[in-house]
Automatic annotation (TrEMBL):
Cellular component GO terms, alphabetical: cytoplasm; nucleus; plasma membrane; vesicle membrane
Domain of life: Eukaryota
Gene3D superfamilies xref list: Annexin
Protein name: Annexin
Encoding gene, per UniProt annotation: Anxa9
Keywords: Annexin, Calcium, Calcium/phospholipid-binding, Repeat
Organism encoding this protein: Phodopus roborovskii (Roborovski's desert hamster)
Keyword Oxidoreductase belongs to the record: no
């Protein structure tokens, strides 16, 4: 018997909101993001508040953080345009002049359109040694198709080069094939109908151990099949071989290809848990990895950060909010906590 994605999504929402004490507020919250449309939004009041925070006696960081972390990205864009119209000044440049350090980076990221933020992170990943298989894959594999296409269009406009060209220049082998295929945004959407024949074909293809087409089969399956289909393939693979697919990846692939395939398996199995693991790793470093924390908290704040928080608490026994509170120091502390939003008991 097939279960529709909508039914699964609703039950997951209820489960997570129940664990957060919000089970009766689903209608008000609407999404699994921590940041949502501010219902009492007044663009004029926000412009005045930001202007006062910048031009008053000393820059008021708390007022800037309060406005920008309590408005949706669409509302922040409206504030930027209104600020320009009323003051003849660019809000982003004005805030950059008033701020510094990591808080400035957060404010810039919050005020950018989502596609521009993703495009810059993707460009940095492809041009920075050793991170292409991590950040680039995260962006290409976890963004919805419309947002991904917008990101790639902004990438071409801002950097005067196609992202595909940079992928070909900066990567090679199976990793390159994975990134190029993911960049096309051609992953199948789940129809609600289980295709048992295709499931069997994919399992057989993944069991193939020799031949020049072996790697190509893995790339094709991992980048084109829906997450719902892949989870069933992973389960069937274990039943047929007695081995988890992650073990097969580690036995057959090495280096960047192995890491990329393992990341894709993790994303397909449970995207929220994948991001929870990345946040935990970033917090465990000698100095917390601010760039990772900022990218994930901002990019997931309007989609599924509540799910990520729930997975973080479940796996690590400590809330994401408390972990940020204990590990992060400096002027970005309050902004990251505001994006995370609340403690999970």
């Amino acid at each position: 018997m097939s279960v529709s994605r909508g039914t699964l999504g609703a039950s997951l929402t209820q489960e997570i909101l129940s664990s957060l004490g919000l089970a009766n507020k689903t209608a008000a919250w609407g999404t699994l993001g921590t940041l949502r449309t501010f219902l009492s939004f007044s663009v004029d009041k926000d412009v005045q508040k930001l202007l006062k925070a910048i031009t008053g006696q000393g820059v008021t960081h708390s007022a800037i953080v309060d406005v920008l972390t309590n408005r949706s990205r669409e509302q922040r864009q409206l504030i930027s345009r209104a600020f320009q119209e009323r003051t003849k000044q660019d809000l982003l440049k004005s805030l950059q002049a008033a701020l510094s350090g990591n808080l400035e980076k957060i404010v810039v990221a919050l005020l950018q359109p989502a596609a521009q933020f993703d495009a810059q992170e993707l460009r940095t990943a492809l041009k920075a040694s050793g991170s292409a298989e991590d950040v680039a894959l995260e962006i290409l594999a976890t963004r919805a198709a419309p947002r991904l296409q917008e990101c790639l269009a902004v990438y071409k406009h801002d950097f005067q080069v196609e992202a595909e060209e940079d992928i070909r220049t900066e990567t090679n082998g199976i990793l390159q094939d994975l990134l190029l295929t993911l960049s096309k945004g051609g992953r199948e959407r789940y129809s609600g109908v289980i295709d048992y024949n295709l499931e069997e074909q994919d399992v057989q293809a993944l069991q193939q151990t020799r031949g020049s087409s072996m790697a190509g089969q893995w790339v094709r399956i991992f980048t084109q099949r829906s997450p719902e289909h892949l989870i069933r393939v992973f389960d069937q693979y274990r039943r047929c071989t007695g081995q988890e697919l992650e073990d097969a990846v580690q036995n057959r692939f090495h280096g960047d290809a192995q890491q990329a395939l393992l990341s894709l398996v993790s994303i397909m199995r449970n995207t929220a848990l994948y991001f929870a693991d990345k946040l935990h790793q970033a917090l465990q470093e000698t100095e917390p990895n601010f760039q990772v924390l900022m990218r994930i908290l901002i990019s997931r704040s309007e989609t599924d950060l509540l799910s990520i928080r729930a997975e973080f608490k479940k796996k690590f026994g400590k809330s994401l909010y408390s972990s940020l509170q204990d590990a992060v120091r400096g002027d970005c502390h309050s902004a990251l906590l505001a994006l995370c939003r609340a403690e999970d008991i």
